[in-house]
């Protein structure tokens, strides 16, 4: 939980890279198209940049998931926990696409796993807080029983 990561993505970079304009170049320079919603009712959107935006800067904010920041070298946040899940969404998506291309219909594990990881995207998206609270319902009142997790939980609740 302690790391130096400060640019936190609420849609995983690995997931954005699956839709990159230029997937064959270095990850640092990959881009994705970004759109603004003009009118939700009429489904009107506008392309933000004709060349796309760098994925490393897209759908992120500084210290979005940090709950304790002392300085640039000491942060407590959820980035490493999210990173474990993020790797898996790329793996499951690639596996699903490969199975579909090979007419292999045994992709239940991939579909269920991708669905679960998509729910995580909802939970970590700052624009979906109300939706997350509705999904969680009574689960929002549960608290950890382990002492170490209780301390982290208390810090999260005071943010």
Give a summary of the structure in a few sentences.
The chain has 159 residues and is α+β, with helices and mostly antiparallel strands.
Strand pairing plus helix content: what structural class? alpha+beta
**Large-scale geometry:** globular
Number of strands: 9
Order of helices and strands: EEHEEEEEEEHHHH
Terminal-residue CA separation: 16 Å
Helix percentage: 40-55%
Mean pLDDT: 85
Low-confidence stretches: none
Give the biggest beta sheet: 3 strands, antiparallel
Radius of gyration: 18 Å
Strand order of the largest sheet: 1-9-8
Instruction: Please indicate the percent range of residues in DSSP E strands (runs of 2 or more).
Output: 15-25%
Number of helical stretches of at least 4 residues:
5
Task: Describe the protein.
This protein has 159 residues and is α+β, with helices and mostly antiparallel strands. 41% of the residues lie in helices and 19% in strands. It is built from five helices and nine strands. It has helices at residues 13-17, 79-101, 108-124, 129-136, 147-158; strands spanning 2-3, 7-9, 31-32, 35-39, 44-47, 53-54, 60-62, 66-71, 74-77. The strands form four sheets. Strands 1-9-8 form a three-stranded antiparallel β-sheet, with no helix packed on it. It has a two-stranded antiparallel ribbon with strand order 2-7. Strands 3-6 form a two-stranded antiparallel ribbon. Strand 4 and strand 5 form a beta hairpin. The longest helix has 23 residues, at 79-101. The two termini are 16 Å apart.
């Amino acid at each position: 939980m302690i790391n130096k990561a400060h640019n936190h993505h609420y849609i995983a970079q690995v997931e954005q890279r699956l839709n990159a304009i230029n997937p064959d170049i270095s990850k640092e320079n990959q881009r994705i198209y970004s759109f603004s919603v003009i009118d939700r009712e009429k489904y009107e959107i506008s392309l933000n940049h004709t060349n796309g935006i760098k994925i490393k800067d897209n759908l992120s904010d500084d210290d979005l998931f940090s709950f304790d920041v002392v300085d640039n070298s000491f942060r407590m946040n959820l980035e490493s926990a999210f990173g474990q899940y993020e790797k898996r969404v790329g793996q499951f998506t690639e596996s699903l696409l490969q199975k579909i291309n090979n007419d292999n219909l045994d992709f239940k594990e991939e579909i269920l796993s991708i669905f679960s990881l998509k729910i995580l995207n909802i939970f970590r998206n700052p624009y979906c807080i109300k939706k997350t609270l509705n999904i969680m319902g009574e689960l929002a009142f549960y608290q950890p029983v382990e002492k170490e997790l209780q301390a982290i939980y208390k810090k999260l609740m005071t943010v």
